[in-house]
Write a structure and sequence with these properties.
This protein has about 210 residues and is α+β, with helices and mostly antiparallel strands. It is built from 5 helices and 8 strands, in the order ααβααββββββαβ. Helix 1 packs antiparallel against helix 2 and helix 3 runs antiparallel to helix 4.
């Protein structure tokens, strides 16, 4: 049978008291020295042993590990930049030829040359303007046209990003800075690229007002 520590301690104390009474009953003046030796052994307690219970070691809370963002680009271009540049150059040259015919050629009808030049103008316009978003661990970079004009925003400077459509259903991205400055660009992303871009913004703790 298993006894609790409290029960065992009480039993030991009672045994000591009984032995002490027996010793006192045997006490004689002629054997005082032997009596006191036995009595001291009985009443002197051994130091109590404690099992040191170590408090469970507390693991210090580690700061959240910051995962670096791998640089990548987000765009919706069907043509790579170099192919786009070649098409733009060729179409610009053809448009120039037809414009020359409008004013200087006597062998072609000016109306036809003008219409052809107008078609090439509307062809090169979307080739010239585009929006590409490049992200790194420190910045959001926006490229705007074939001249690679760019606008860079440090993540720490961005207050929020607004995504919306105008009355013509054209999508835009507006970057609001903590200085209250704002920059607006056409937003080219759809589908999977759009969701991945939103994940990057969430990872960088950028508030997004998405009204697309």
């Amino acid at each position: 049978m298993h006894h609790s520590p409290t029960y065992s301690a009480n039993t030991k104390e009672k045994n000591k008291e009984r032995k002490a009474h027996q010793l006192w009953g045997q006490f004689t003046r002629r054997d005082q020295e032997g009596f006191w030796q036995q009595y001291e052994k009985l009443i002197v307690k051994n130091p109590q042993q404690f099992t040191s219970t170590q408090a469970p070691s507390q693991t210090l809370a580690q700061p959240p590990k910051v995962v670096a963002i791998q640089p990548r680009s987000f765009h919706n271009r069907l043509l790579p930049y170099r192919v786009r540049l070649v098409f733009f150059t060729v179409n610009l040259g053809l448009m120039g030829i037809f414009l020359v015919n409008v004013f200087f050629s006597v062998h072609h009808k000016p109306a036809f040359s003008f219409l052809a030049a107008l078609v090439f103008f509307y062809t090169i316009r979307p080739l010239w303007y585009f929006t590409s978003l490049y992200i790194s661990n420190q910045h959001l970079l926006v490229l705007r046209d074939l001249l690679l004009r760019k606008k860079s925003f440090a993540w720490s400077k961005i207050h929020l990003i607004e995504l919306y459509r105008d009355q013509y259903k054209t999508a835009y991205i507006k970057v609001w800075l903590r200085s209250n400055e704002q920059q607006c660009f056409k937003y080219p992303l759809v589908g999977r690229n759009h969701h991945k871009f939103l994940q990057v913004l969430e990872h960088k703790n950028i508030f997004v007002e998405n009204r697309l």
